[in-house]
Amino acid sequence: MALRSAPLLLLVLVGVALRESCFGSSLHSMKYFSTSISEPSWGLPHFVVLGYMDDQVFVHYDSKSRKFQPRVPWMEKEDSKYWDRYTEILHDNEKMYTKDLENLRSRYNHSKGFHTWQRMVGCKRQADRSKGGLWQYGYDGRTFIAFDKDTLTWVGLDPQAQVTQRKWNAIPGLNQYTKSYLEEECIEWMEKFLSYGKETLLRTESPVVTVTRRKEAQDGMETHVCRVDGFYPREIDASWKRDGEVWLEDTFYGSMAPNADGTYHKWLSIRIDPKKRDRYRCHVEHDGLQESLDVELKEPKSNLGLIIGCVVVAALVLVGVIAGILVFFKRRRDDYNAAPTSDKGSNSSDQGSNQVILQLPRSASGHSQHEERGEKMGSAFF
Fold first, then answer.
1. Helix, strand or coil for residue 173?
2. CA distance 123 to 341
3. I want to staple 266 with a disulfide (CB 3.0 to 4.6 A). Which of 90, 134, 256, 296 is the partner?
4. Which residue has the higher pLDDT, 202 or 353?
5. How far apart are alpha carbons 251 and 1 in whole angstroms?
6. Is the pLDDT of residue 11 over 60?
7. 183: which DSSP letter?
8. Burial of 135 (0-12, 13-18, 19+ CB in 10 A)
């Protein structure tokens, strides 16, 4: 059971860490995900903590290294006291989470096996400077209990969780502290870390927008895909418009995803009647753009000119090849007629001919022109 579930845990970790439902769209956010595993396998640690600044992992701890460590160069600005302090705190959390898992298995009457206990804590800041936060726990991939900032209460989602709900809501000052942490202390830490990584986290990259077309043979309809790539920050408005109005009919939105360089990409498609192509635009708004983009759907270009051009080029090449062959055989015939009749003379003529045909002109670098062309082709295409 544990072996089969281990890959699932990795998907849960990634999915929870990146899902937009935790915070929705925000200007900046900081999130921490702690996970304890009852029966780790495949080399997985039994306790892991990942810290995310926006969508970038910036700190990490696990039960194998037993060290709280930076994952980005800009977090190395924190001194050793910071890392030592939170390493000790996470040592205690590691023991506490293991004990929590034992209590939960007993409360749910679960036998020993693969189980997870997770905590998600974080805060966000919107463009209008408003603040938000999240503090919740999950057991076996489902929400167990969550803090409601509006009512200042913990809310359990099933009878077993409501046992914990009653205990936590009865602790004096706990709920007020939780709200204060999410709206004040967490925001202060986030602002501090943003100042560390401002070259990366506060930069702006403009999106590159391209539109491709595919015609469907069955009914003659067209599918156009608008691809938006290389933008940062992640907040972007991309939509299909018809006659200047947002058009949702026959529109499909792909999910947003990060690129290797920290920027983002997304796509959206629309299915239309080609006769109405000129009415549609792919509309994009982003902080990296001085003004919004409206990319039109262009009429497909005819291939007739390209075909005629290729035929003309091929004909010219064929004429050149034929002319070269005629010149070659004429020279060979002239050389044969002028060659000495002795065996020695014949051998000297063959050697001279081979040198002319096989030896390639050399460049100043000592490489043949053919070799240099091959190097340039290789660096450009492979």
1. coil
2. 97
3. 256
4. 202
5. 41
6. no
7. I
8. buried
Between 166 and 318, where is the model more confident?
Answer: 166
**Residues recorded for the chain:** 382
Instruction: Kindly tell me the sign of the dihedral angle through the C-alpha atoms of 333, 335, 341, 345.
Output: negative
Chain-centroid distance of CA 26 in Å reads 18
Q: Check pLDDT > 70 for residue 3.
A: no
Helix then strand count (H, E) for the chain reads 9, 17
Side-chain-side CA neighbours of residue 239 (13 Å):
12
The CA distance from 283 to 115, in Å, is 46
β-partners of residue 80 are none
Q: Provide DSSP, 200-218.
A: HHT--B--EEEEEEEE-TT
Q: How many Å apart are CA 58 and CA 349, to the nearest integer?
A: 74
| pTM exceeds cut of 0.85 | no
Sign of the alpha-carbon dihedral angle for 83, 89, 92, 94: negative
> Which of residues 222 and 320 earns the better pLDDT score?
222
Question: Would you say residue 235 has pLDDT above 70?
Answer: yes
Evaluate if residue 244 carries a pLDDT over 70: yes
Helix, strand, or coil (residue 27): coil
CB neighbourhood size of 114 (10 A):
18
Mean pLDDT confidence for 104-130: 91
